[in-house]
Amino acid sequence: MAVQPPLLALQNATLTFGGRPTFQEVSVAVARGERICLVGRNGSGKSTLLKCLSGMIELDRGERFIQPGAHVAYMPQEPKFDPAMTIGEHVALGLPDHEQDGATRYKVEAILDEVGLDPDRKLVDLSGGEGRRVSLARVFVAEPDVVLLDEPTNHLDIPAIEWLEARLADYRGAILMISHDRAFLNRLSRRVLWLDRGKLRSLDQGFLGFDDWAERVLAAEAAEEARLDKKLIAETLWMRQGISARRTRNMGRVRALQDLRSDKAERVGIRQAKMGSAASSETGGQLVVEVKGISKSFTQTLPDGTTTTRVIVQDFSTKIVRGERIGIIGANGAGKSTLLKILTGEIPPDAGKIRFGVNLVPAYFDQHRSRLDEEASVRDNLTEGRGDSVFVRGVPRHVNSYMRDFLFEDRQALTPAKALSGGERNRLLIAKVLAQTSNLMVLDEPTNDLDMDTLELLEEVLADYDGTLFLVSHDRDFLDRLVTSVIAVEGDGEIAEYVGGYTDYLRQRPAKADPVKAAKQAAAAARTTKPKTAKMGFKDQHDLQRLPSVIESLGREKAELQQKLADPKLYARDRRAFDAANTRLNAVDVEIAQAEDRWLELEMKKAELA
Fold first, then answer.
1. 288-526 falls under which CATH superfamily?
2. 110 contacts 119 by C-beta, under 8 angstroms
3. Which site among 42, 187, 344, 374 is 20 to 30 Å from 205 CA-CA?
4. pTM as predicted
């Protein structure tokens, strides 16, 4: 099989920051149609490598190659938005210079219609999910040859992630992506690049084979270190033992999780069988929360002064007991946070009954990291400024020892939280939350910006947590590994509970619309603008206007080709020209038929909407 020439490449690339090499003598090539994921621990240089490929950062040594005429689009992990610009203006910057004019506005409007955003809205007060969709729209607007995506699923809800997966699966260009979402990588990747301690290794398989391969690589490296030096470096020892030990421990945890799910299934079955009768009370402090027929809605005032009522919860009942791990899922804006606040007692329901257990001691992780002091150091955030000891569930530990448990180095103890990366700040907040004495842990999107090692560490700690867990997450694999049941907030007040993880939810739930439509519907529900009357989309309107001239132009081309082929001497005089004209004539016939079918379809649609 012939090797395709690269569209984008780095050759013998070296980059140094602050006197320390980020990576050395790294070579990577991206060919047309490739699906590559780039993995590595936080701080290993993944985002920097992506910026070097995009041309944003100059190499200290080595070369960057881009095929002439190739268009490369890059989506940063933390995009910056100019509040003076509209969403449409920002997305239009993703078009090549020669296309940034009014004639190509339909491309901007079409992609924003696809992600459910208003092109005339200003770039202010965007939620994390909206900002991510704006960035993805800017990447896709020009259908580039190569897309470089840095954590594209961060802040996206599950319908939007499924839409993105479907779009990338059908995408003809090359993809190089950084992501912590294992389900996302398992579906899309066909090759893995592993950036580890400045070296780049390559696996010609998808991410599904990464763990076994990484374990073999580290074991071989550790054996070589032992043979040469009789001493293992600490990081290699930790990683090698960590991977093997995690795999051994996880077998027991999987069995324990299955037992918890079986217990939950029995309780749900009993509750459903006794629907309408009083539930039996739990013994001595087993109850966490019980809700019966709760409802909640909000009244919103629209820009034109009219009001509308939005139903968040409608007649929902459940009982949660000690030790259960509840995953809460749903589209952004569907009402997950509202439901969570009701279940934790922050806000009351409008109707129904709610009963809480006794002696609940909650600990909270919020995705905005509001409980983190950005100006304080890592050490002071953990100790709350009280010396060198941190109390971990009431037991004192030296702060440096506790930091190492969460993959921080001793030298980072005095680093201000604001100077940490997004993943490191999340890791610090997780360490702070887990140190608290609690029997109820509430985690709102804890996996954003975390690398694979930290995700596995978090899974270990939460799997060993003997309290009750409320987990809001869009990470499907994370949910599968941890929760005993899933509460799905489907929108319009519809909420249902399913025993098991996310995969079990997919198997049990009623058939739903496709994820693209679901993402659009969720985005529309979250907006407070007045509903618009049905009309044709931007792309449909543009196609309806341009297709008559396209059909006319193709008709002229067909007549010219027929006239050219009517020359009896053409075949003998120029066989190549004859073959080319004949091939083009066949293609023109197909294009005319397709254009006419599309125009007829749009005319019928226009008549239906009239």
1. P-loop containing nucleotide triphosphate hydrolases (3.40.50.300)
2. no
3. 42
4. 0.70
